[in-house]
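Standup notes
- HV: blocked on the assembly model, inputs below
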Amino acid sequence: MESASISAGQTTAVHEHHHGPPEAHQSSRIDRQTLGILLFIVSEIMLFGAFFASYFFIRVVANQGAWPPDPYELPVAVAGVNTIILVSSSFTIHWALEGAKKGNRRAMQMGLTATWLLGATFLFIQINEYLHIGFGAQDGAFGSIFYGLTGLHGAHVFVGLLLLTFANIRAYKGHFGTAAKDHLGVEVPGIYWHFVDVMWIIVFVTVYIL
Amino acid sequence: MKITEPQMFRVVVLVGIAMIPVVLLAVVVHPIAGAILFGLEVGTAIGYLIQRARSVEARDAEVAPVPDDGVHRLLVVANETVGGRALFAEIERRLQGEEKSELLVVCPPLAGSAAEHWSSDIDGYLPEARERLEASVAAMRAAGLNVTGRLGDHHDPNQAIEDALKVFPADEVVISTHTPERSRWLESGVIERARAELPQPVTHVVVDLEGEASGSSE
């Protein structure tokens, strides 16, 4: 708070009733967890936004001919299947958290394992796509932005898989309970995973469909 | 405000559903048609998020408990109207008959424009606000009131009130604003939020500075 105290002629009781300011480095209007995840998501949106801005600049302003430039072709069907796989994983992580909340350990473990497998499959298919797509990141602006955008997302999937690996290990070791504070280890990776899914839907539609 | 997994799951489902017509339009009609719909949807989503960010949910404010020590404490929150006669009259009326009383005047400075507000560029407005506050506090003190003054959070008047109530356990709160046609605080629902969030009774005083100025010049 911007403050400039003007002392009164008489001694006031303001300081006598001081019950202390909010905890250090913490706003009283927003808790640390929410602020942290908000800052993270905002920074991620800006990061992806920069790549999308580059993509649209290259495609709309700098590009004169067809898109993708000849002779390149994007494997839309494979990417579509990959999209379905990744979106499915949002349902399985949600199932896992619902299991954790209801004390259904088996559902939580199955949900987390299924999410990890679906995420790994997505990443495997994407790497396979890179190997067979017929152009590289060095093949002009198109190749650079294609690999930049999809690679940035792939890196996020990889980080998500690491988080899910830890969540899986903890789930099978008997961690996590029904109380909200006891299943944060599932909820936080879940929030991240959903964010990664949303970004992929937008990347897929922008790069492969439009 | 919280971000939860179920909320994010709903976002995934919503985005997925929203993209189906975009894909269909792009594939069946033309990619440009899909791109237009995509742009409209993104614009709608951004508009919704801005609207949601502007309407802050009311919650219980964290304030210091009011001690039972026989001292009547009054928190007054005002910016440009801090020197208004209507506010002064209301303060005197509220403290009339109180044996022991304390008054804290909080003056959250206002930025001149939305850009200055969001970039916290209020340096130019602080001296004016401090001057108004000092003059008002001096006048109240001259009237025999036991008063302290401070500048408050410029970004959110409700935050300034809550911050003050953490250290000043007021029995009641008086918020002074301009008339409805001129007041930005009234437009952003400061009074309604204070009444919803604070355990103390909240009194709203409208100060018509122009009216008071023309009245005194007659």
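- HV (later): unblocked. The two ends of chain B are 51 Å apart (CA to CA). Chain B is about 50% helix and 15% strand.
- Next: hand off to the docking folks.
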